[in-house]
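Section 3.1: Structural characterization of target chains.
Under the original work plan, the team committed to producing a structural model for every single-chain target entering the pipeline before any wet-lab resources were allocated. The record below documents one such target. The sequence was received from the expression subgroup and is listed exactly as submitted; it comprises 376 residues.
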Amino acid sequence: MEPGLYTKGFKRRVNVALGLRSYDIAIGRGLLASFDFGNCSGRTSALCVVTNSTVWPLWQGRLLKGVLSAYTLIDPIVIEDGEHRKLLSTIETVWSHLLAHRADRSTLLIAVGGGVIGDITGFAAACYQRGIDFIQVPTTLLAMVDSSVGGKTGVNHPLGKNMIGSFHQPKAVICDIDTLSTLPPREYASGIAEVIKYGAITDLAFFEYLEQHMEALVARDPEVLIDVIARCCEIKADVVAKDERESGLREILNFGHTFGHAIEAGLGYGEWLHGEAVAAGMVMGAYLSEALGLLPMRDVNRIIELTKRAGLPVRGPSSLAAAEYLDLMRVDKKARNGAIRYIVLDSLGKARTQPADDALALASIERANALAATSS
């Protein structure tokens, strides 16, 4: 994507280098109304937006203005908002809508919403007529920095999060930070958890930048936002280019997620936001790294403090006993032969995957749960 070819004036561009499946991430303001979605695919006959009942009333006017008028539009698919809709039955609703409107292999799906919408749309696109193109238009911070990039799509199962799905790369990712202006504070903070994760696992300098600019990030300063989103996308793009299907290196992107997914599954999806669960999970993962003799306690405390400054929880829910985590975590996709494997930190900015004794994991959960609650 050359500057100006599909959109005017975007501030940053990040490429995900995957050979014939390569694509660009555009990051800036005012992109929703200026990006030529159909031209991005190259074989588009019709466009169909998949969105949710919260986002669509807010942004449909800007999205439909101008650029989409040049293409045949299929009626949008508007899904009820919430993690509880991330189900196979919702995917079937999408497929039924496409079939009823005679969508074919040249139809382009456009996912407009958060991570749930992106995952649903991507999985539906991967399977419909054995694969059609889609574009990610994330409208939450979490989706912009994480779930919209990398091609992981899927739905939840009662026994585990994201256990049913496929890899299907988008044709482009369009991050219009204007859409973050309507994001509730709790949802916005949830996205900052994934931002902190990137610094903790791969980039000490970025972690230090967050320590210096957390208040500006929380305040949604546009320049800080664009820089932060771009850096997160650069990190993820680099990891995905090296390990597209999560056979090794890409697992480090799940720091905090093994514990966090247990929280989500144990409480019921949607009770805690994904980023909230990941935030508490990162603290547990930091304590586990310290218990393994890897991460100094001063760096554990830096993670805890930065997480608190973001307005995120640093301990798990009181209703979920530490012992319950183990059974829930054995369903994790990184588990091998029933053994739980964790993302641990050798130091801030350096992560890897390894197993750990159940006793150490339980002790780490209990240490995190003994912390004072997040500051407001």
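The chain is about 45% helix and 20% strand.
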